[in-house]
Amino acid sequence: MANERSDVLILGGGLAGLCLAIQLRRELPMLSVRVLERRKHPVPHAAFKVGESTVEIGAHYFDTVLDLKSHLERDQLRKFGFRFFFNEGKDDIAQTTELGVSSVFPTPSYQIDRGIFENYLATHATELGAVFEDGATVRTIDLDANSHRVRYTRDGAEHDIAARWVIDASGRAGLLKRKLDLAQENAHDANAIWFRIGERVEIDTWSDDETWTSRTNPRERWRSTNHLCGPGYWAWLIPLSSGSHSVGIVADGQMHPLESINSFDKAMDWFAVHQPQLYRQLDTRRDKLQDFAFFRHFSYGCKQVFSGERWALTGEAGLFLDPFYSPGSDFIAIANTYILDLIRRDFACERFAREARLYENLYFSFYRNTLALYQDQYPMFGHAELMPLKVMWDYAYYWGILCQFFFQNRLTDMTLFTRLAQPLERCEILNRDMQRFLREAAGDGVGRGTAQWLDQQRLPWFAEMNRGLRDNLSVDELEQRIRTHAAMLESLAAEIFRRVQALGYRSDNANPLAALDEPTTELLREAA
Predict the structure, then answer these.
(1) Do residues 36 and 133 both lie within one domain?
(2) Model confidence pLDDT, tens digit, residues 458-473
(3) Each residue of 312-368: pLDDT tens digit?
(4) Whole-prediction pTM value?
(5) Which structural domain range is residue 516 located in?
(6) CATH of the domain at 241
(7) Pair 27, 80: CB distance under 8 Å
(8) Which residues, at least 6 apart from 445, have a Cβ–Cβ distance to it below 8 Å?
(9) In angstroms, rounded to a whole number, what is the distance separating the alpha carbons of residues 339 and 328?
């Protein structure tokens, strides 16, 4: 048995683990880093893993923090933003409400072919000095704050390795989560299926209406993460640089049971009813099917992710929310940022147990705030009038608050978080209340069916919020921006309330404000 040692041992060489290895080697090059990955490399393109769409935090983490921009621009696809079609059962996409952008916003995001990306990450991590061992199966983990020990097998040989830090990046296998009984359910009952088709599915060809096709410049809606929305579900279309297209359904577990979509044939039957245009596109490509998979009740939390005993969880080994808005790579970026800082403090002979607790509290607050966007919200996903208001709110909250801390490299600035405690707490409550208010106003309807083109580029404040993510701010400027955005969110909440009233929607609740926090209630009463 070979006896070895590493400063940091990462269990899992997928997206979370390889990114952390690269980040550690770039920022703490004096440390030895080893990654154990169960799969053999290279992994196949396209038909490999789900999670291809990135949004601004994850994209910034990849292209700037990890300095992978050249790979992303050369070997992946620049995303044409999110795009939403409220087209349940419709045969003509040009006659549905569309929410999106007419031209690409300045802050980039990407569509990622996970096979291509993870093969590159493994090679790049090795070039930076990390040891990457594929085909490695972890057998036992013995935790000891002074020296953890892990036994694994590879190519028929047994290995015993000691490590100062052990990081669980093993995805849903959750090696440390299972060992330490850290699993924690949440109340978000949703399921997902997905598959890859070995050919481009170009939504731009679904209509020959020149008014519709000319809305975007360039005429490349296919580069967006396209959401086809209906009551209780959304279907995705995500292009991959390998030429394949990712297709998925995410649905409320009660409204669209997993058993109705958990095979390719069942999913096709489901598309024939709910998304007939997509059904016709896929029906002629059945022979191009590359894979099929599903997850039941995919969303979950975790009791602990960072420890003062020199272990941590990142990626899906810790928690997972929902693929809507693609937050998976965001939470990898945030967790890895905190893990790196804890390791840096440890090897600088600083105490770090207090920071582990503080970072975990913040991480879980981000989780709670984001979970509010999804839990109990799926019944309104097909609402063509109120769902766009929710999407605009969710974007403003994301770009205006959480993105600011990450882009300005202030996630670990506890002094700043303390100074901003009051407006941040107010934003958290307001976000929770606005989710509840819109959900109750929407009921189980789909709104009026008049087709609309809702171009986010026509909102100057919205476009500027995206552009401003790339500003380089001092800490004082950042604090002022957060306070300004918090005030803006209150104004936006009031405007959404007025718009909902003008549209004539009323909650089934006799008093739709009764369940809201008192400051929110006062704000909306004033708006009325």
Answers:
(1) yes
(2) 999 999 999 999 999 9
(3) 999 999 999 999 999 999 999 999 999 999 999 999 999 999 999 999 999 999 999
(4) 0.96
(5) 385-445+473-528
(6) 3.30.9
(7) no
(8) 383
(9) 17
